[in-house]
Every structure is written in C-alpha cells, then in structure tokens.
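Reply to thread "Modeling small-molecule complexes from scratch"

Following up on the discussion above, here's a worked example others can learn from. I took a protein sequence and the SMILES for magnesium ion and predicted the complex. Inputs first:
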Amino acid sequence: MKTFDDIEVRRPALAKSYLGLIHAQPGRPLAMFAPRRVGKTYFLDHDLAPAARQAKSLPVYADLWLQKSAPLEAINHALEESLDDVTVPGSEVGRLARTTVRKVGALGASVDFGDAPARRPLPSAAELRLDALVVRLAATAGKPILLMLDEIQALGEVAGGEKIIATLRAVLHKRRDILKSVFTGSSQETMVRMLSTAGSPMYQFAQLLDFPVLGDEFLQQLADHFAEVHPGKSLSLEDLRRVFARIGFKPGLMRDLVKSLSAEGLTDVDAGVKRFLLEDRQVVGWSALLQPHDLFERAVLLTIAQGLPPMGRDTLDTLATVQGSRPTVAKVRAAIERLRRAGLLVKAGGGPTAVDDPLFAEYLQGRSLDELK
Ligand SMILES: Nc1ncnc2c1ncn2[C@@H]1O[C@H](COP(=O)(O)OP(=O)(O)OP(=O)(O)O)[C@@H](O)[C@H]1O
Ligand SMILES: [Mg+2]
C-alpha cells in the first residue's frame, strides 16, 4: 500500500531543460543554489542523473561536504569509482567477453582483444589527476561526463579553495567537449565571496540558477493520500500552500507535518505546525543546534530571529544584560560569523542576515533567552 513516504515528485522536464542549458554553453557549469532541505540532492539523483543517462552521458556525483577538508580528492575519488564501474563489467556477458575472447585469427593475422594495453599510472598530484581522470573515464565509457558537484560552497570554506576553483575552471574549459558540470549549493554567498577574492565574478564562471521549489504537485499528493486514509476528512490545498511557504518549502518536513496530523486525524494545518514546533523530537533537534554555541551567540541568534537589527543600539543594550557590559560591534560580528559558519544564519542576496530555517526562526521567536540557557 502507498504511504506518505512513497509520495514523490519527479521533474524530468526541468532536468531536460538544465541539460539543454549545459550543452548550449560548453565549458560553463550551471550552479543551482537553494536553501537547505528543499530537494537539490534528490533532484540530482532522481531526475538529472537519469536524464543525463538517457542523453547518453555518464553522470558522476560527488558530495564535497563529505570530505570537506579535501574537496578535490573527493571529486577525483568519485571519478575513480566511476572508472572502476565502467572498467569492470558488471554483467555476466561482459565478463565472459572480456576473459574468453583473446585472439581472433584471420588469414594469419591476429587481433588481440584481451587485456587492455597497460596504461601509464595516473598522476598523483590532485590537479593533474583530475584532468587525466576525466579524459580516461570519458574515453573508457565512450561518453561525455556530467560531473555533479553537490555542496559546492564547501570550496569556500577550505584553505586553498580558490586554487581548486581555478583548477576546476581550467579543466572544464580544456575538456569542454567531454566534460559538463552542474554545481549545487546552499550558500551562494560563500561562493560569490570566494570567487571575488579569486578575482572573477560568479556569473563569469558559472550560470547561476535559482532552483525551483516543489509546489502543488507535491501538496496535492499529500492531500489526496490524507483523504484516502481518512475518509470524509480533507486538508485544504490553500492551507497546505501557506504552511509549505511558512516552513521554507522543505518537502521532507512537510511530509512529516502531514504525517503527524494524519496520526491524530486532525485537519487544521496551521495548528498542526504550532504543535509540531513543540514536539519533543523537534525541541531536541533545536537544542542540538544551539548546543555548540555559547550564551552570547544564542542571544545574538535570538535577536536576529526576532527581527532586531543585530548592531542596533537596543540590541546592544539587550546583549549587555547577557554579559554584564555592552558588547563591542566586533564581538557581535564575530558571533554572527560563527553562527553563519554553522549554517544557522544566512544572508540572502544583499538583504539582512536572517535565520536560515524559518521553522527554527519561529521556534526562537516564541522563546526568551532564559529558556535557551
Ligand atoms: N521531488 C521530491 N519528491 C518528494 N520528496 C522530496 C523531493 N525532493 C526532496 N524530497 C524530500 O526532501 C528531503 C530533502 O531533500 P534533499 O536532501 O534533496 O534536499 P537538499 O536541498 O539537498 O538538502 P541539503 O541542503 O541539506 O543538502 C528528502 O529526503 C526527501 O524526503
Ligand atoms: Mg543536499
């Protein structure tokens, strides 16, 4: 039987249009940025990779966050794994063909289909290795590569990140016939900052796209399944839309929310969010996010959640009560930077610094500093 967890939205048309953009601009990657948890990785995995395969490309996925300290090695590792996959045939037929067809004699001449000629080892310097791997993989697979680099902002947070960007850029340009690329990330700001210290604006390097969030096609499925489980009851699409926006268009979270309504047969979605905010599970999660931050940082986070200008006179007065004396602007700035690095705060476009997760912001708005101690 279908459950809420089986509900998914596939976006083949979006994937196809992205591939079209990539092919129209050889050497220039697409960079899609969107807030956390809205479905970027899911899209790469379920929509873009299959569309690339269908278009006779070889998709290769690398998560740069997983090996934050060595992102170039993470990319090379993904390419190497993929090279293994295409070199070692998985199917029985492939294996037989490889081991038994050794020599075919024809009028005295013989052609050797056996082992591939020994190749020079790949260079060990990561920059050269990337280039060599791309060439070897594309040649072995007999297809162009679509390199999908997830969490690209990790490059902005590692020492030598600019050098890696320069390497990527050079390889993407040099190998533009056999290598296409898509970046995704949750912090456009980090990337933009890094590229401008590397001396080139982001738009020159990559085409920036705002990744579209899910919409009615997702919400309608949730409502339909709810109606199936609870005959005679229904969730209004309009309520679902409003709440989806309120929680920052996060499909996983929205699904959990509807599941919790369903468990009790409730249909008031807004009231559901309120209850959801205070569920133990959520509160434990929020506390874990706060845990690494000292009281001063928590206080700064709280003032930002409440929409106060963090350097404003009133804010500094409030913060003075936390540490006994008025903090310096530099201290507030340093706290904001740490909260930003932890992913709790973002600076959207040129706008003010805000709490990244709107639901977390809502939770904080309902708290006093004493409750966050
Ligand atoms: N198209 C979709 N249909 C159904 N559910 C989805 C879809 N896209 C995302 N989700 C749900 O949302 C969750 C978060 O998606 P995903 O991990 O792709 O987000 P993300 O933007 O990559 O997040 P992060 O910034 O944390 O990497 C998934 O686990 C999945 O449950
Ligand atoms: Mg992701």
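What I'd highlight from this example: The pocket of adenosine-5'-triphosphate (ligand 1) is lined by residues 8-9, 36-42, 186, 214, 251-252 (CB under 6 Å). The first helix runs from residue 12 to 24. Questions welcome below.
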